[in-house]
UniProtKB/TrEMBL annotation:
GO terms for molecular function: DNA-binding transcription factor activity; transcription cis-regulatory region binding. Pfam families: TetR_C_11 (PF16859), TetR_N (PF00440). The chain crosses the membrane at residues 157-175. This is TetR/AcrR family transcriptional regulator. Residues 17-77 form the HTH tetR-type domain. It comes from Streptomyces palmae. The keyword Transmembrane applies. InterPro entries: Homeodomain-like_sf (IPR009057), HTH-type_TetR-like_transc_reg (IPR050109), HTH_TetR (IPR001647), Tet_transcr_reg_TetR-rel_C_sf (IPR036271), TetR_C (IPR011075). Residues 40-59 bind DNA.
Length: 209
């Protein structure tokens, strides 16, 4: 259901998509210019050319506002269809690294820290963001089963952690160069394939469902 339809179904006035787009654009620009910690609602309102009330009608907090903007471009929203498990996972890794490496410095760690401090926002993150990633990986694994590459479905949540966790750690915990991401993702691809083929490859018990 779209935002406009949601508003109509509640009996309220439909939101102006132009304001949504202006706010989202302002958030993205300011994250680059001032960073996550220093970004304020006042700055967003001024940059977007809207009143602060218009922002608060959409987002109760700065954290929620930034989350909504970040979720619009969430990675792993759609499964690739490259014809093989290796090619699909390689495409997933390319999307993960591209998304994380292009994020404004400090934005993802700061947002994730605030998400985990807010039970309501954390629940939305788990369902809208992490849940979407796991669903996409589940579809990739099911396609591999249909092609005969796997005989059962490995745990998609563990596969998600294997793919996402090291990239996040490399960029934000270890502060390593993004120039070395191709070397890291090559190793991650081999590790992910070893994981899924060990737990779901030929000889494993079928557990599709």
């Amino acid at each position: 259901m779209t935002v406009r339809k949601q508003a109509e179904s509640r009996g309220g006035r439909p939101r102006d998509s132009r304001v949504d787009e202006a706010v989202a654009s302002a958030v993205r620009e300011l994250l680059v210019e001032v960073g996550y910690a220093r970004l304020t609602m006042d700055q967003v309102a001024a940059r977007a050319g809207v009143g602060k009330a218009a922002i608060y009608r959409r987002h109760a907090t700065k954290q929620e506002m930034i989350f909504e903007v970040a979720a619009q471009g969430q990675f792993l929203a759609e499964p690739p269809a490259r014809g093989s498990l290796r090619a699909d996972l390689a495409a997933v890794l390319a999307e993960i690294t591209g998304s994380m490496a292009s994020a404004p410095p400090g934005a993802l760690p700061g947002l994730l820290a605030d998400i985990h401090a807010d039970p309501g926002l954390l629940a939305r993150f788990v369902t809208q963001y992490r849940g979407a990633q796991i669903q996409t990986l589940t579809e990739i694994l099911d396609a591999a089963i249909a092609r005969g590459e796997l005989t059962s479905r490995p745990d998609a949540a563990i596969l998600n952690a294997v793919l996402v966790g090291p990239v996040f750690a490399w960029l934000y915990l270890l502060s390593e160069s993004s120039d070395q991401l191709p070397v890291l993702t090559s190793a991650l691809l081999d590790a992910a394939l070893a994981l899924v083929t060990t737990t779901g490859g030929p000889g494993a018990d079928a557990q599709v469902g």
